[in-house]
Fold this protein.
Amino acid sequence: MISDVKKLIELYNFRPLPVENTLFTQSYKSEEGTAIIGLYCNEPYSISLFHKLPVDEIWHFYKGDPLRLILLYPDGSSKDVIMGTDVNKGEIIQFIVPAGVWQAGHMVDGGQYSLYGCTMAPGFTEEMFTGGTIEELLETYPDRQDDIKRYACEPGKTKM
């Protein structure tokens, strides 16, 4: 399976996204929108740290092992979304993260890779990204302490 990861990295020319280190490639860009293909894997390590965006982001699951989105809503609530292809386990192939929601993501433990895509309109720019720190997120979401400690941005590294 590791050879599949290497093939995907080479095929799509994945590179690390600044700040959060997600492996990605931009597949579409216009004034109206953007699309990326992303890859979570263990080697090289690829996850998405907590961040929020000022516009909705549509996630699409393509292939591989399930991934988990961790969502922290402005009202203090939270939820996990498992994206994958096994509908019998409640996995979904598409999900919209609303604007202003803190989000983090990773491949479910035990997997080899998760291949997914994200689209946004208007399109993503680096100025849109706001990373969340442990201190900031724990104030509103103390019940998500374990996830926050694992997937928060480092202080001073919250902008691209």
